[in-house]
Amino acid sequence: MPVPILKQGDTLIASVVAALTDDDLIQLRDELAQRIGKVRARGVVIDVTALDVLDSFATRTLRGIAYTAKLRGAETVIVGIQPDVAFAMVQLGLTMEGVPTALDLEQGLALLAKHKERTR
Amino acid sequence: MSEVRVAIQREADIVLARQAGRQLAAQIGFSATDQTLIATAISEVARNIVVYATRGEIVLMRADESGRVGIMVQAIDTGPGIDNKDMAMRDGFSTKNSLGLGLPGARRLMDDFDLASEVGHGTTVTMKKWKR
Question: Is the model's pTM score more than 0.90?
Fold first, then answer.
């Protein structure tokens, strides 16, 4: 199931609504990289609230998306990692390695606003 | 004893396997947190089948052992097998450009973990988690 991407100001918001297959993730990466250029986005929020599992492949792909967006000039924040998912990621040995995370969409957008202030 | 078998042939099957695992874990009475740990471990071993062996299956069943109740997860494939099992269990080791956390990570998520593999014949990962 493809991930819908919404635009709010100069921020793109991708809300994951169902379990992601690897193809969905790769499609999300490619589409975000395109859209960032098209709408001249400065920030990206990926909302993973609906995800019940973040395994090593998904985590690595999300990091890859964030690095790709950064090279395109947009900062990415991952929001909505559920408590059980966070616990499982720690047990597994996964980290987001420098990709900022926030509790929810609201705090993610606030974080991006602060980042934009700093880099203006 | 009822068992659930999920054929793993493409990466979309990984999602089916972990959903089936979560469902069985819930039926057995695992907490929501443990269900997530079990589903994540299944995701890792199922992915190994797709990446290294192309096809295989995930077998899920209830485990009863000396008064304990839990879940048993087996990942079975007839792929190339694992040449060096010690290396395969090491964090960060991968022959396929992944993070190399699959097997050691799955071991940390579960209680019991066994890796049986014969080069040229395949690999069977058997892992169990017990209800607390």
Answer: yes
